[in-house]
Write a structure and sequence with these properties.
single chain, alpha/beta
């Protein structure tokens, strides 16, 4: 991994240019989405996926960060559990996967422009501590997407964590796994040292796809296997 060191002048200049180009493009697309999402779901999907692709392009050509995938990315009705270290993988999911539905904090759906477009695209709202009614609505939305063979994506640790940290999975993950009844594909990612915060570093971000874990396992086993797999790049 990248050693803990200060940022070079080149890295600082690249980071500033990235902020100008990526966030500038994001604002422009965000202003257009209230109009384009009303045309059709296909147009809204195109906008969301091209926003994701724009981040990947800026990451590669401005920051000098390569992205590689180790293993075969899943498709179809499956629950994908992803390590979360930086903004990068959250925005990259529509570019990385085939039209995923993504469990996301309900607050993200209130972001002007992109929030509503995210709902139309397929964000599944997660309302923590809101009781059984909110859980039933979340599971119903997830089942709707899996019924049409869209992969479901969840960050089982619940939030971004620093590279090297291995917190326990959120208690809700095992419940979602049980209620949805899908196999799980864990994915590790090591974006934190390069992409976390305003200043970015050159290097390579790796997605490592773990082996598929079947549905119906006991809570202790599913949590242990997913925890180990998503932290495979933290050793």
């Amino acid at each position: 991994m990248t050693p803990d060191r200060g940022y070079t002048l080149e890295e600082r200049l690249r980071s500033i240019l990235f902020a100008i180009f990526f966030f500038g493009g994001s604002v422009l697309l965000g202003l257009l989405t209230p109009i384009t999402r009303n045309w059709s779901e296909a147009v809204n999907r195109w906008m969301c996926e091209h926003w994701s692709a724009w981040q990947r392009w800026c990451t590669r050509h401005i920051l000098g960060i390569r992205v590689i995938v180790e293993g075969t990315l899943p498709t179809g009705a499956v629950l994908i559990a992803v390590k979360h270290e930086a903004m990068f993988e959250a925005v990259d999911l529509p570019n990385l996967l085939d039209h995923p539905a993504i469990f996301a904090k309900v607050e993200l759906m209130k972001v002007p422009g992109w929030g509503k477009s995210g709902q139309v695209y397929g964000l599944v709202p997660v309302e923590r501590d809101q009781g059984a009614k909110a859980l039933r609505a979340m599971i119903a939305a997830a089942r709707k997407f899996s019924a049409i063979s869209r992969p479901l994506v969840i960050f089982p640790e619940g939030t971004r964590v620093h590279h090297g940290n291995k917190p326990e999975l959120q208690s809700g993950f095992a419940g979602i796994y049980k209620l949805i009844g899908l196999p799980v594909v864990p994915i590790a990612v090591n974006s934190g040292p390069l992409f976390r915060g305003f200043w970015k570093r050159k290097g390579t971000i790796v997605y490592r796809v773990g082996e598929t874990i079947p549905a119906g396992l006991p809570r202790e086993e599913i949590e242990g296997r997913v925890h180990a797999a998503i932290n495979a790049l933290n050793d």
